[in-house]
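hi! just following up on the protien thing from before. the input was this:
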Amino acid sequence: MDNLTNNPVSRLDFVESPPEEVEVIPPEDVVTMLETALRNDFGLLPYLVLGFFCGIRPAGELPLLQWSDIDLDAKSVTMRSAVSKTKRRRFPEISENAIAWLEAYRQRGGICRRSDRYL
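and the predicted 3d structure came back as:
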């Protein structure tokens, strides 16, 4: 027995994976996706808007975001530590173009109430 003098993990081989390349979506494709969502998949629009314009991660953060985390008047989102990838609260700003898309969503009957649980 090693009496914890040797770390058993040090005997393992680790594969270093290259960092994932950030995918940049051309602006014209973003517009097409947003317009298509506005016409055909209304509930998807806030998800796309907050992902494209507010820097909220689509994997792990956006699905857990709640309307109560969004303050359209203050133009900010509260990323709770339980939701944030970094496990720290952060406060992304909601840009003017994101506000415009969310207003279009609201004007067409979309609900952006703080009492609604999920987007």
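The mean pLDDT is 85.
The beta strands are 70-71, 76-77.
cheers
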